[in-house]
From TrEMBL:
InterPro entries: NAD(P)-bd_dom_sf (IPR036291), SDR_fam (IPR002347), Sec_Metab_Biosynth_Oxidored (IPR052228). Keywords: Oxidoreductase. PANTHER family: ALCOHOL DEHYDROGENASE-LIKE C-TERMINAL DOMAIN-CONTAINING PROTEIN, YALI0E05731P. GO terms for molecular function: oxidoreductase activity. This is NAD(P)-binding protein.
Length: 306
């Protein structure tokens, strides 16, 4: 439970530590940034919306204990922006970024579009940009400790992703019934992230990667992802109740990424795949049984970032 994480996080001092929160202008990312600021960390908030980003920075300054607070504008649907951002973070942190929390994007809505760099748009934000930031920051030696990525993991019994069509670009996929496209894209997101998280510590043995599933957190994600109006309405009506009962508000959930990244007690507990109750979800069996597949996935993603 997040209240459990809140208790465990009491008194943790992060003065002198730097954290970057991509997708930090609202929702889970903004609340997580505030939690890090409260512990004295310097927080870099990343997103496209300047007005929201500056508002979050004001909140960070109010909540903070002397750490820096800065908004960096970036559209992470583009690999070129991911690369620029990785360079900016290296410079702004003096090459010392302790924690990277990636929350940009949202659930797939089943639409298909391509970025100007020819990547499928949802994949580019939800999967590629998260990997790209972690990969580039780790490779340059800027990332010093932990990458936490927040999106639904596939789970122990999940199937590996289809390496031949990671972006679900082929015509057959695009012709599927909308709910099927949403399910396929969501499953793919989780599976790819699982594979990358499992390979991360092999590629960078001194660093940690954690794939965190937030359960239900009441945010504007459904409307931000242009879900149909009745669904958005239902979520705005019942979401607050869900958040109070079985889920979380962004503020209560923020204790979880904070715990996973920065609380020494979270280490060595098998929490590389974890839910909002801090329950270890276990690595998908394919990541253990088929290490060559996970390596190929890594190489494919790395080639997209070069
Ligand atoms: N909320 C939940 O219950 C839940 C459940 C399962 C998984 N998740 C996952 O958790 C993550 C965070 O969810 P949330 O509810 O906090 O979502 P949210 O409130 O909609 O926030 C999404 C963030 O992503 C940023 N973003 C979107 N597109 C971007 C782009 N092209 N470039 C840079 N930043 C971009 C947005 O900033 P700008 O608009 O400023 O760019 C915003 O700060 C999502 O990936 C979601 O799929 C959430």
């Amino acid at each position: 439970m997040s209240s459990q994480a809140a208790k465990l996080n009491e008194g943790i001092d992060l003065a002198g530590k730097n954290v970057a929160i991509s997708g930090g202008t609202q929702g889970i990312g903004a609340a997580t940034g505030i939690r890090f600021a409260q512990a004295g960390a310097s927080v870099f908030v990343i997103g496209r919306n300047e007005e929201l980003g500056n508002k979050v920075v004001e909140e960070l300054k109010k909540a903070g204990k002397g750490g820096k607070a800065e908004f960096i504008k970036a559209d992470l649907s583009l690999v070129s922006s991911v690369k620029t951002l990785a360079d900016q973070l290296k410079q702004k942190t003096g090459g010392e970024l302790h924690y990277l929390i990636t929350t940009q994007g949202g659930p797939p809505n089943g639409t298909f579009s391509l970025t100007s760099e020819d990547h499928e748009s949802h994949f580019a934000i939800q999967v590629l940009s998260r990997f790209g930031l972690a990969y580039l920051l780790a490779q340059s030696g800027t990332l010093k400790d932990t990458w936490v990525t927040i999106c639904a993991p596939g789970g122990e019994k999940s199937a590996p992703p289809d390496l031949e069509d990671l972006e679900l670009k082929n015509e057959e996929e695009r012709q599927r019934y909308l709910p099927m496209r949403i399910i396929k894209a969501g499953t793919r997101d989780g599976a790819v992230m699982d594979g990358l998280v499992s390979q991360f510590s092999s590629a960078f043995p001194s660093l940690r990667a954690v794939h965190a599933f937030p359960g239900y957190v009441h945010t504007s994600a459904a409307s931000n992802q242009s879900f149909p109006r009745p669904l958005v309405l239902l979520q705005s009506l019942f979401g607050p109740l869900l958040a109070r009962t079985i889920g979380n508000t962004p503020t209560t959930y923020a204790e979880v990424p904070f715990y996973l990244a920065a609380n020494p007690q979270a280490r060595g507990k098998g929490l590389e795949y974890t839910n909002e109750k801090l329950k270890p979800l276990g690595a998908p069996s394919w990541t253990k049984d088929q290490p060559e597949l996970r390596k190929k996935l890594w190489e494919k993603m790395a080639a997209m970032i070069q």
